[in-house]
Amino acid sequence: MPQSGWIEVICGSMFSGKTEELIRRVKRATIAKQKVILFKPQLDQRYDGKKIVSHDDNRLEAVSVAEPKDMISLSEGFDVIGIDEAQFFPPSIVSVCETLASQGKRVVVSGLDQDYLGKPFGSMPELLAIAEYITKNLAICMACGSPANKSQRLSATQEQVLLGGHDRYEARCRNCFRTQAQQRSPREEYTGLQHTNSVAIKTSTPRG
Prior knowledge:
Helix content: 25-40%
Strand content: 15-25%
Number of domains: 1
Number of strands: 12
Largest sheet: 6 strands, parallel
CATH topology: Rossmann fold
Number of helices: 6
CATH architecture: 3-Layer(aba) Sandwich
């Protein structure tokens, strides 16, 4: 009977150190002489198309993939599978992680658990549900300095996926976080109404 694998999920807001923690765990696995492979979504080309890069500029080589199913064949012969920015992958990322863990592999996933509206992001809720180990990272609120679990978008763009760093987002706590509607002035709200009418706490400690 093959050795049982498991899934670890590192989640939190932007600037909470999710990728940094993923890199730390992968480096420890490498020191332990384990074979490691890293994956990143093809659409994330912010810093480097062939590496995962933290906001602190730590980098590790990674394979850029569009379809999660490709990870299964690419992971043959590896012990530890790292997956960054999991929220950007299609829903099949969930079953792929299950498959890899069932093959006896350690699967370490990092991603945003909430989008810019504070809503669950992509397949992260499902990944959190199936994970054996969960780490919730908190950032520092850029408005008041409190622990932050939200990603405040600084522009009025409404697409759920808008790649960026400090130029487009800030970490915010619950009290300082504002949705775009809450940021609008009373006059903007009135004008908008007229227009409308006219037409990531640590919950457990992973092994290793």
